[in-house]
Amino acid sequence: MASQEGRLLMLIDDEPAQSRLVTALAAREGWRTLVVESCDEALQTLASKEGAQIGAVLLDQWVPGDGACDFIRTLKADHPKIPVMMLTASTSPLLAVEAMRAGATDYLIKPIAPERFLSALRSATRREAPKDELQPMTEKLSEVLDFDAMVGTAAPFRTALAKAATAARGHGHVLVEGETGTGKEMLLRAMHQASTRSKAPVRLVNCAGMPGNSLESLLFGHEKGAFPGAFDKQVGLIDLCDGGTLMLDEIDRIDLAIQERLAEMLESGIVRPTGASHGFRVDVRVFGASDVPLDILIENGEFSEALRDKLSATSIYLPPLRDRLGDIPALTRYFLSRIAEQPGLKHHSIADSGLSLLEAYDWPGNVRQLQAVLFRASVFCDGEALTAESFPQLAELLGDGHRGESRARGLGVLLYQDDGNLRPLEEIEADIIRLAIGHYRGRMTEVARRLGIGRSTLYRKLSDLGIDNAA
């Protein structure tokens, strides 16, 4: 494996423009890029002295075409420790499944999103033992746009949804704050779908990773000749969204000067393209999302207080998953049902051992990470249910400390055997009765009442099931 200094990325690609982009992006993280134009050349390079320095491979699926997965298998057979990422124009979940089964570490959609690529590169090549199942695999499932897809019953989460539903029917700007992966973008889309502007123009901009001048032109537009390289006039998204909604994700990453310009536009309702002598009035509703609390950035002089004030007519906070662990069972069932709809995958249930493992983890990547872990486990699971064995890297991270009582559910009743099959109903019923007797400290009248049966029925079941009523 390549050393940390002078890390080398091998790009298998025959598109010069894309090769230049990947080379520039990888350089941000201190990577050199070696471009080869064919799979044969890639294998020859890997077998050479220079190949020993290669720390990761990025494969454009277009190069080998239908044989991309076969090539990945060949490469991984000879070089099992080198992470391989596939780049493709296809959004087919089936191709993602096949690539992962062939040994791909990650799967990226063209055109390359800078932050997505850099995140995949970091995850694939972290120095500690790779936690493959915890890497971001978020481009496989299309987003559902309504509030019904926002699963959870935790009080702070329901409060956030209630505020969002109320705000969606209004006309003011909205600010959504929360950690990465908590579902901010999904909430913005659901709000737009439920708003009176749902049929009007809408654009979503991820502000992270875009150079300031590019983002400024994208939002405000520019006149021909406004600056060197402005060979043509560009209409800005604010203009295009007149009468509709502009959604700005990761707004905390915008340059301060652009923040001030946005605040001025929201105050006056007038947008002026760069290089234009005059502006024009627009009616744009702005939804902003931030991974970092803006108050902290304002205190540090890193965010415009005026822009925060304009956006926060309604301010919504999405809690991290670690603060709503009780929602993990419902989220897991929901994601598994959606994953089962993808070509090449089947429906899986989840055994108690697997669910307890999921509930024991802190989920720094939040709901998005949970979805990614379940997707990866479903790809490789041949049984009917996901068990603890379906999440080996997660179990390794947690060690033996996760075993025993789940933090979220407390002492429960196991529904599945270790092989993933359901336990016999008689065994489950016996466990429930034992649990009730222990919970109500042997008060049999209370046990019968809580179980919804008569005392005589309870004692008959104790006899039939061979349960000691002192259990």
Automatic annotation (TrEMBL):
One GO-annotated biological process of the protein: phosphorelay signal transduction system
SUPFAM superfamilies to which the protein is assigned, alphabetical: CheY-like, Homeodomain-like, P-loop containing nucleoside triphosphate hydrolases
Keyword Ribosomal protein on entry: no
Domain Response regulatory: 8-125
Top-level lineage group: Bacteria
Domain Sigma-54 factor interaction: residue ranges: 150-379
One function term, GO molecular function aspect: sequence-specific DNA binding
Record's keyword terms, sorted: Activator, ATP-binding, Cytoplasm, DNA-binding, Nitrogen fixation, Nucleotide-binding, Phosphoprotein, Repressor, Transcription, Transcription regulation, Two-component regulatory system
GO cellular component: cytoplasm
Presence of keyword Plastid: no
Annotated Pfam families: AAA_lid_14, HTH_8, Response_reg, Sigma54_activat
Primary residence: cytoplasm
Subcellular location(s) per record: Cytoplasm
InterPro entries, per the entry: AAA+_ATPase, AAA_lid_NorR, CheY-like_superfamily, Homeodomain-like_sf, HTH_Fis, P-loop_NTPase, Sig_transdc_resp-reg_receiver, Sigma_54_int
4-aspartylphosphate: modified positions: 60
Function comment: Member of the two-component regulatory system NtrB/NtrC, which controls expression of the nitrogen-regulated (ntr) genes in response to nitrogen limitation. Phosphorylated NtrC binds directly to DNA and stimulates the formation of open promoter-sigma54-RNA polymerase complexes.
PANTHER family linked: DNA-BINDING TRANSCRIPTIONAL REGULATOR NTRC (PTHR32071:SF95), TRANSCRIPTIONAL REGULATORY PROTEIN (PTHR32071)
Protein name in UniProt: DNA-binding transcriptional regulator NtrC
